Amino acid sequence: METLKFTYRGKEITAPMEIVQKYGNVMTFHVIGKNGQRFIFLKYGNEWSHIEGTLSASLREAILDALIMRFEFAAVKTFIYQGKRQIVTVNWVYGGGVWDVKINHISRGWIAFYENEGFRWRISEGETWLKPRHMEYFIELIKAGKIVSTDPLDKKIREAEK
Fold first, then answer.
1. DSSP 3-state assignment of 99?
2. At what angle do helices 132-143 and 151-161 cross, to 10 degrees?
3. Rounded Cα–Cα distance for residues 40 and 29 (Å)
């Protein structure tokens, strides 16, 4: 049995968890409560939901966020905006030479690294919550190696930072 770690009401909680079904674009997770209750969560395509078990809204959201951060490819942040969960992913585009910044799987910007210039980024036009401070935060994650790229590029970034 695996474990899921999340923060709830300022406490770090570790709960037993099982991945019960995993096929195609569907995953079912059973998170076990302290009294043996099962809380069932579902990832269907790009949508995450709580489908069974009584939980307070704040605990449900804490568990969903922890599941997303662990099992959603390249997730770096989750939050609620205008009543809807936003999943921010930043991943290296092989062959594209940039990190793609997506919100709910829709490209909203990019980050590139140039040996002579350093990092450059662009936020796509249109309605988005992305601000320059967010792009700088993502760049710090890249520099720290928390967002992957190719090994040769990682070395160039470290060398440029010296």
1. strand
2. 110
3. 6
Q: Are 3 and 12 in contact (CB under 8 A)?
A: no
Model pTM score:
0.84
Contact, 124 vs 115, CB < 8 A? no
Q: Among residues 26, 38, 161, 101, which one has the least CA distance to residue 87?
A: 101
Answer for the pair 143, 156: CB distance below 8 angstroms, yes or no. Answer: no
Sheet containing strand 11-23, edge to edge, reads: 2-8, 11-23, 26-32, 38-44, 47-52
| 54 band by pLDDT with thresholds 50, 70 and 90 | very high
Residue given tokens 């309605």 in the structure block: 127
Task: For residue 76, give the nearest of 4, 6, 146 by alpha carbon.
Answer: 146
CA distance 50 to 54: 10
